[in-house]
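Project outcomes to date are best conveyed with an example. Our students and postdoctoral researchers have been running inverse folding experiments weekly, and each run begins with a structure described purely in tokens. The record below, which covers 394 residues, was selected by the lab manager from last quarter's runs and is presented without edits.
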């Protein structure tokens, strides 16, 4: 059977499978209530205490890749940054050590862009769930708390890495809040919250809007917060409104808009009528293309290795390649072309390459000499290697 182009981008859900028990079911319907998976697995390959010191002492970590929180507020820059360096916004390990000793919480932000293991995991999880992810790490001394009760506007996985942390969860203060709906007043604490303690290897699914706080126990705690981009119908509409050609509402508002309510209501009625007519005749397929074009660049593109691919491109038939199947966000056949979406980049191939590419994307690793002698294989491998869909081993 000839594979469809859609099958080329089918998620394996290996990353999601580390976090939840039923990856296909979870991805089909993201739960609206918290879910806890005890002993989900060993996540020490992703992050740990050793990585904390590496980031602080070996990487010259700069803002906004970290922040320090004490009593629910970010500490001033002078309390945690170097002074007099070429880059004045570099973390000062000595100052941060002192703050940790006083009970402050250290937050690493955007770790999917800073560490190899989390970058790879983030790409795979983003492919599994069809939306980009952001990874933060929270390092909290024993018996301390970074933030009081609050809610987030993104769905998140909480993965306990080291030590333990006691969480209090309360019903949402606002159902499915959007990104601009932060800081809403919280109800008075009536003691009805649910408490649970996360141990290393536990994973908590925390939907957006749920009020929560966390405090470390008698040991220091390190946990990851893996947040999903908030892609909602509202998000899609904002992209449509910003990009759709011929969108209505181009007429100027009345000069009396802020003085004359009747004039303002007339303008709004005209706008509503134009929008209603436009939406009634809009082409759904065109809207899909527009929203996809807006969202695809937010996914990380496949990793490129310039030194390996450009400066030392020599490879023989015995070279081993790693297949990055999660790099293919989408694949569509358009006439005699196969169009792949690779984050911010695209790759167009002859549609006749679909069966060969489908076979390749089922592999984890391969050597060209082990592939069947199919016409076009060499050209395909060259293109895929250049785009990072396959990576030649060292």
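After processing, the design step wrote out the following sequence:
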């Amino acid at each position: 059977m000839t594979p469809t182009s859609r099958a080329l981008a089918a998620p394996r859900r290996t990353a999601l499978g580390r976090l939840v028990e039923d990856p296909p079911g979870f991805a089909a319907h993201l739960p609206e209530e918290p879910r806890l998976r005890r002993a989900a697995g060993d996540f020490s390959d992703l992050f740990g205490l050793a990585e904390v010191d590496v980031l602080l002492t070996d990487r010259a970590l700069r803002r906004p890749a970290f922040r320090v929180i004490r009593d629910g507020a970010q500490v001033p820059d002078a309390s945690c940054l170097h002074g007099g360096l070429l880059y004045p916004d570099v973390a000062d390990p000595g100052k941060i050590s002192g703050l940790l000793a006083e009970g402050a919480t250290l937050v690493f932000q955007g770790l999917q862009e800073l560490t190899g293991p989390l970058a790879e995991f983030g790409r795979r999880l983003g492919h599994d769930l069809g939306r980009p992810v952001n990874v933060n790490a929270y390092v909290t001394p024993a018996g301390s708390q970074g933030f009081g009760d609050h809610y987030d506007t993104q769905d998140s996985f909480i993965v306990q890495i080291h030590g333990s942390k006691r969480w209090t969860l309360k019903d949402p203060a606002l159902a499915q809040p959007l990104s601009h709906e932060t800081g809403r007043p919280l109800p008075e604490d009536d003691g009805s919250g649910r408490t649970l303690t996360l141990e290393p290897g536990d994973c908590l699914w925390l939907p957006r809007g749920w009020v929560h706080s966390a405090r470390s126990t008698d040991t220091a705690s390190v946990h990851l917060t893996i947040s999903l981009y908030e892609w909602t119908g509202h998000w899609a509409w904002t992209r449509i409104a910003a990009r759709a050609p011929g969108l209505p509402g181009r007429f100027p508002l009345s000069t009396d808009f802020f003085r004359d309510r009747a004039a303002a209501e007339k303008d709004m009625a005209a706008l509503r009528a134009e929008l209603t007519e436009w939406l009634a005749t809009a082409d759904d397929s065109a809207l899909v293309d527009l929203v996809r074009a807006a969202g695809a660049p937010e996914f990380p593109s496949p990793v490129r290795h310039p030194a390996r691919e450009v400066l030392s491109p020599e490879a023989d038939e015995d070279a081993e390649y790693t297949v990055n199947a999660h790099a293919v966000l989408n694949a569509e056949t358009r006439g005699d072309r196969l169009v792949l979406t690779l984050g911010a980049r695209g790759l167009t191939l002859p549609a006749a390459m679909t069966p060969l590419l489908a076979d390749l994307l089922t592999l984890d690793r391969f050597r060209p000499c082990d592939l069947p002698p199919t016409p076009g294989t060499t050209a395909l491998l060259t293109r895929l290697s250049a785009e990072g869909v396959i990576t030649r081993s060292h």
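The longest helix spans residues 261-281. The chain is about 30% helix and 20% strand. The training component of this project remains on track.
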